[in-house]
Specification:
The protein is of the alpha+beta class. It has 2 domains: 118 residues, Jelly Rolls (Sandwich); 49 residues. The protein contains 8 helices and 8 strands. The strands form 2 sheets. It has a 4-stranded antiparallel sheet. The protein has a 4-stranded antiparallel sheet with strand order 2-7-4-5. Helix 7 packs across helix 8. The two termini are 27 Å apart.
């Protein structure tokens, strides 16, 4: 499954889009800079115009997991924070130079198109989450990596191997072994 697109034209007309953009605040982030940290209260929606970010969780023992990657055209917000009011449970960090549009959720709620836009965001995120959940529950590491390559073409060239492994829930050593096996299969 390819990542479903976020498409404003499905939920708003040109006039609503112009009003929406009047609320936007531009932000550039250099690599290794954070948009927010676990424990923050990110009351905003983010649209990625350029660059690549990761949502990361670091456990007390230092193990890191990648919840998600975000790149050009993606829109995201911390749904857990939005729905519960609790602080963010993960951090969002730039992996590449990023140009972002930030929208305060309080501003967005003023728009007549917000309910349909919010529903669209939920539908897109649900499709992404369902796909990843089924993949993690039903497939082995090799199938997860092959799905990653097929679903996100070119992303493997932008993301360091240890982060791909953290996204797939495997070790970097396992990822290296999987790549060697796939290379051998493709040669033979």
């Amino acid at each position: 499954m390819d990542r479903p697109p976020f498409r404003w034209e499905l939920v708003m007309n040109e006039q609503e889009a112009a009003r929406l953009l009047s609320f936007a605040r531009s932000l550039t982030l250099a690599p290794k800079n954070y948009l927010w940290h676990a424990g923050d209260n990110p009351d905003l929606l983010v649209r990625v115009e350029q660059g690549l970010l990761r949502a990361r969780v670091v456990l007390a023992d230092g193990r890191e997991y990648i919840k998600e990657f975000y790149w050009e055209g993606d829109e995201f917000l911390d749904f857990h924070h939005l729905l519960s009011g609790e602080p963010a449970r993960y951090s969002v960090e730039a992996l590449e130079p990023c140009r972002l549009q930030l929208f305060q959720l309080a501003d967005l709620r003023q728009l007549s198109c917000w309910p349909s836009w919010y529903r669209h965001l939920l539908e897109v995120q649900l499709r992404i989450k369902e796909e990843k959940e089924l993949l993690l529950l039903t497939e082995g590491p090799r199938a997860r990596y092959q799905h990653f390559l097929a679903s996100f073409p070119g992303l493997d060239a932008r993301v360091p191997d240890h982060l791909i492994a953290a996204y797939l829930g495997i070790t970097p050593i396992s990822l290296s072994r999987i790549r060697k096996r796939l290379k051998a299969i493709n040669k033979g």
